[in-house]
Amino acid sequence: MRVKGAGAAASPLLHDMGFNSDWIEKGLAREERSSRGVYNKAEFEMQRRHMAQEWSNAVDA
Question: Do the Cβ atoms of 22 and 44 come closer than 8 Å?
Fold first, then answer.
């Protein structure tokens, strides 16, 4: 039996919280492992920081 990781649990909850799918996938490091992925690391940085803080607040609550 495969145990799901935190990312598998976080993704649907972050979607339910109304966050953008692109932010979620980048935040969970689910991106292509190529030169494009390396160059796009900073994409949505500010949005992902906000999302991470909101997630942290929800977990702490």
Answer: yes
Q: What is the dihedral of CA 1, 13, 10, 55, to 10 degrees?
A: -150
pTM (two decimals): 0.65
Residues whose CB is less than 8 angstroms from the CB of residue 40 and which lie 6 or more positions away in sequence, other chains included: 26, 31
What's the mean pLDDT in 19-48? 74
- In this structure, is the dihedral angle defined by the CA atoms of residues 20, 7, 27 and 25, taken in order, positive or negative? negative
SS3 label, residue 34 = coil
What is the per-residue pLDDT across 21-33, written as a single tens digit (0 to 9) for each? Answer: 888 888 877 555 6
